UniProtKB/TrEMBL annotation:
One of its GO terms (biological process) is chromosome condensation. It comes from the Bacteria. One of its GO terms (molecular function) is DNA binding. Coiled coil: none annotated. GO terms for cellular component: cytosol. InterPro entries: Hist_DNA-bd, IHF-like_DNA-bd_dom_sf. It comes from Desulfotalea psychrophila (strain LSv54 / DSM 12343). Keywords: DNA condensation, DNA-binding. SMART domains: BHL. The keyword rRNA-binding does not apply. PANTHER family: DNA-BINDING PROTEIN HU, DNA-BINDING PROTEIN HU-BETA. CDD domains: IHF_B. Gene3D superfamilies: IHF-like DNA-binding proteins (4.10.520.10). This is Probable DNA-binding protein HU.
């Protein structure tokens, strides 16, 4: 599977909209920073037709190191959660057929 980098997205959008790459890059940075700031403030970010991002808390837990057998306490932490939209899910499923 080939990965797509931020640079590739900027190149594609720049070509599609006939805009300078520098302008598209600035816009992408502003969008990503806005999303990051919203998530940091515990706000849900929803992009219609794509999906939604939210922050969830994981409870503290105890686990055992499989190599040493040592019991370790893992503290509570916040994680990013993504839920894809129904239309994105359907397009991914139809691509497999």
């Amino acid at each position: 599977m080939k990965r797509m980098l931020k640079k590739d997205i900027i190149d594609s959008v720049s070509e599609e909209l006939s805009m300078q790459k520098q302008d598209v890059s600035v816009a992408a940075d502003v969008i990503l920073e806005t999303i990051s700031n919203a998530l940091a403030r515990d706000r849900r970010v929803e992009l219609r037709g794509f999906g939604s991002f939210s922050v969830r808390s994981r409870k503290p837990r105890t686990t055992k190191n499989p190599r040493t057998g040592q019991v370790m306490d893992i503290p509570e932490r916040r994680t990013l959660h993504f839920t894809m939209s129904k239309s994105l899910k359907e397009s991914l499923i139809s691509d497999m057929d």
